[in-house]
TrEMBL record:
GO molecular function: hydrolase activity
Short sequence motif Histidine triad motif: positions: 97-101
InterPro entries on file: Histidine_triad_CS, Histidine_triad_HIT, HIT-like, HIT-like_sf
UniProt cross-references to Pfam families, sorted A to Z: HIT
Active site, UniProt feature: 99
Protein name, as recorded: HIT domain-containing protein
Entry keyword annotation includes Hydrolase: yes
First and last residue of the signal peptide: none
Domain (HIT) ranges: 5-113
Superkingdom of this protein's organism: Bacteria
Keywords from the named record: Hydrolase
Length: 113
């Protein structure tokens, strides 16, 4: 999608502080971190939100969680971490491209704010 911020990041048109990249996903540090470790993982193909996941594109979500598990091990997040995705404006989604926040290295309260 031409006007999508995260699509531009995935294409390399906008620089990011990269944590991980492969042919399918990109992980990068959040520009406004809410925890000592805070990065996002996005599919390189445009999916607008969790509501846009279909049988045809759902494999990318499984791959994203495999990447998160690998990064959690590499970054030694054994004490715990949180994976968050928002759906729609009322759900707190600020960029209309499926993305997962990974937050760690501090105690995370429940319920979230």
């Amino acid at each position: 999608m031409q006007d999508c911020l995260f699509c531009k990041m995935a294409a390399g048109d906008i620089p990011v502080s990269k944590v991980y990249e492969d042919d399918t996903v990109l992980a990068f540090h959040d520009i406004d971190p809410q925890a000592p470790v805070h990065f996002l993982v996005i599919p390189k193909t445009h999916i607008a939100s969790p509501g846009g996941i279909t049988p045809e594109n759902s494999a990318v979500v499984a791959h994203i969680f495999e990447v998160i598990a690998r990064l959690a091990e590499d970054l030694e997040l054994g004490n715990g971490y949180r994976v968050v995705t928002n759906c729609g404006r009322d759900g707190g989604q600020s960029v209309p491209h499926l993305h997962f926040h990974v937050l760690a290295k501090r105690s995370l309260a429940w319920p979230p704010g």
